[in-house]
Amino acid sequence: MPHQALRPLRSFVRREGRITPAQQRALAEQLPRFAWPDQPQPIAPVAVFGRVAPLVIEIGFGNGDNVFAQALAHPEQDFLGLEVHRPGVGALLQQVDAAGLNNVRVSTKDAMEFMPSALPPGAADVVQIFFPDPWPKKRHHKRRLVRDNIMDLVARVLRPGGRLLLATDWENYAVQMLTVLNAHPEFENQMPAGGYAPRCERVKTRFERRAERLGHVIRDLEYRRR
């Protein structure tokens, strides 16, 4: 039997759900304008945004509420959102276009495929991972986004001294995040005791509000790239 290449272990399942006509229109009309260029070689943020500015990357931005709010509040920064679920991308593009923002770009690629090839090393000042899919069943924990090989990719795109911010409402995932990142040679926990951090600047998305209604404890983590 011929050898078959192993598929990469995905940290997501495409659950497209219902896409509204407005979201579909935004994808058709605005995605070509706001998509990160798909080129064979990494491209520097200055070539995309036309200026030198801090770059914030959010991996798995959901409906884009946090990316939009931060981009609106911080016009001096540039934002790159990665999201594989197209309804969420369409929702963000609607807001960005309506507000006339030019400091947001998006990609619908899997982060594992995007980060090694689309960005040069040290391109980002901040990487944000808020409420990633918890994959609650133990046999699926290996699919969680926060694992060594993906954190290697995050370390590559962060500049030295850059920040990695995370949040989750699943206790055992928070413990896994601490375990993985406290042991990672490229990251330094910013809490003196090596534990959880105060809540970072972000808007409360529907995911966080739902977690609070369910009585889940929200845990934040903050690291710096060594």
Ends apart, CA distance between termini: 45 Å
List low-confidence stretches: 1-7
The largest sheet has its strands arranged as 3-2-1-4-5-7-6
Q: What is the number of beta strands? A: 7
- CA-based gyration radius: 17 Å
Descriptive notes:
The chain has 226 residues and is α/β, with parallel strands linked by helices. Helices cover 36% and strands 19% of the residues. It contains eight helices and seven strands; from the N terminus they run H-H-E-H-E-H-E-H-E-H-E-H-E-H-E. It has helices at 21-34, 45-49, 65-73, 86-99, 111-118, 148-157, 171-183, 206-213; strands at residues 55-59, 78-82, 104-107, 124-130, 158-168, 187-189, 219-225. Strand 4 (124-130), helix 6 (148-157) and strand 5 (158-168) form a beta-alpha-beta unit. 35% of the residues are buried.
Could you give a quick summary of the protein structure above?
The protein has 226 residues and is an alpha/beta fold.
List the main descriptive attributes of the protein structure presented here.
single chain, 226 residues, alpha/beta, seven-stranded mixed β-sheet, disordered N terminus
Topology diagram in text:
Elements: H1 21-34, H2 45-49, E1 55-59, H3 65-73, E2 78-82, H4 86-99, E3 104-107, H5 111-118, E4 124-130, H6 148-157, E5 158-168, H7 171-183, E6 187-189, H8 206-213, E7 219-225
Parallel strand pairs: 1-2, 1-4, 2-3, 4-5
Antiparallel strand pairs: 5-7, 6-7
Helix pairs in contact: 1-4, 3-4, 5-6
